[in-house]
Amino acid sequence: MDETNITRMPMIGDIAPEFRSITTKGKINFPEDYKGKWVIFFSHPADFTPVCTTEFIALSKRYEEFKALNCELLGLSIDSLHSHLAWVKNIEGIDWKGQGKVIVPFPIVADISMNVARQYGMLQTVAKTQTVRAVFIIDPESVVRAILYYPMSTGRNIDELKRVLLSLQKHDEENIATPADWQPGDDVVMGSPLTLEDAEARVKDAGDDIIAYEWYLTAKKEKTENFKVLKDKIVLEDGKGATVAFIEFPEFEPGKVEVTHTVVGDSLPGRGIAGKMTKLLAETLIAQGRKAELTCSYAVKWFNEHREYESALIDPEAEYKKASEQTDRACGIPKHRK
């Protein structure tokens, strides 16, 4: 028996196998270089193949969405670096479905020796020289959290990869589980009670926020924030329509705004409302083609920590310089007057 083809693929809960490699973006030491970030590590049967090309285009279009979730993408196929580079250049010239061309922003591991593919159990074809479509979702502590395998003939669903990532992140943040067909904003599932007393209490405590279908099957309703995007302000209202948080961005000339204040009421501690408003602001400005200058010290800090949204800023480097110089202080005096 050829023992070189016998592999023990990583299991969920394992530390991701280590490797060093050259990629289309330079050398990497994996997973050490990715500590503190989520990673979606995915393999392709070969360069210059049709299904793989469509996946690369789709992932490139969605790259900023994953990056905003503190997740990096990392590809692999059993080809040389030069083949990868030629393929990437070719992909970037394709206008798939008339939706526009892309730039491939993530690295592709060169694995012509097949060492990495063997480490990750990616060689499951008869030829043993092509990887199946494997996906490993790895958390910031380098632990394998989810594994998906597809045959070479089936392209992956990018929405599903993102959904699984969001489910894992939500589990880590709230210690809950997500049910079948869950989407962000849907109800979540609570863990099963471990004692008879807990089971009885779970049913007894059911109400507006908790639905007990059975003693072991309990859903928890998601709490949603009612944000409203106005011309120069984003506000959060409570159930009675009163404003409990807001962020202001008055326009000082066409296409340019100044982020002046972020205010969150005392009733909302620990819910990340300021960050949610600032993210919504950044997304709104990008969608509208407007750019911001920052006076609000909180906004300066937020954009410095979320540089994937720098296209919403007039002068990103100037704002990052403010972040390195600022101390804890209130919002500054607006520099622009109408």
Characterise the protein shown here.
This protein has three domains: 9-157, Glutaredoxin (3-Layer(aba) Sandwich), CATH 3.40.30.10; 176-220, no CATH class; 226-325, Gcn5-related N-acetyltransferase (GNAT) (Aminopeptidase, 3-Layer(aba) Sandwich). The strands form five sheets. It has a five-stranded mixed beta sheet with strand order 5-4-3-6-7, covered by helices on one side. The chain starts with 18 loop residues before the first strand and ends in a 13-residue tail after the last helix. 28% of the residues lie in helices and 24% in strands. It has helices at residues 50-68, 81-91, 115-119, 158-174, 196-204, 273-288, 297-305, 316-325; strands at residues 19-23, 26-30, 38-44, 71-77, 108-110, 133-138, 144-150, 188-189, 210-214, 217-220, 226-229, 233-237, 243-248, 251-253, 256-259, 261-264, 291-294.
Please sum up the structure shown:
The chain is an alpha+beta fold. 28% of the residues lie in helices and 24% in strands.
User: What portion of residues belong to β-strands?
Assistant: 15-25%
Q: Provide a count of the helices.
A: 8
Q: Give helix and strand order, one letter per element, not per position.
A: EEEHEHEHEEHEHEEEEEEEEHEHH
Largest sheet: 5 strands, mixed
Distance between the termini: 79 Å
SSE class? alpha+beta
- CATH superfamily label of the largest domain: Glutaredoxin
Domain count: 3
Mind telling me the CATH class of the largest domain? Alpha Beta
CA-atom Rg in angstroms: 24 Å
CATH fold-level label of the largest domain: Glutaredoxin
The total count of strands amounts to 17
Strand order of the largest sheet: 5-4-3-6-7
Helix content: 25-40%
User: Low-confidence parts, pLDDT < 50 over ≥5 residues?
Assistant: none
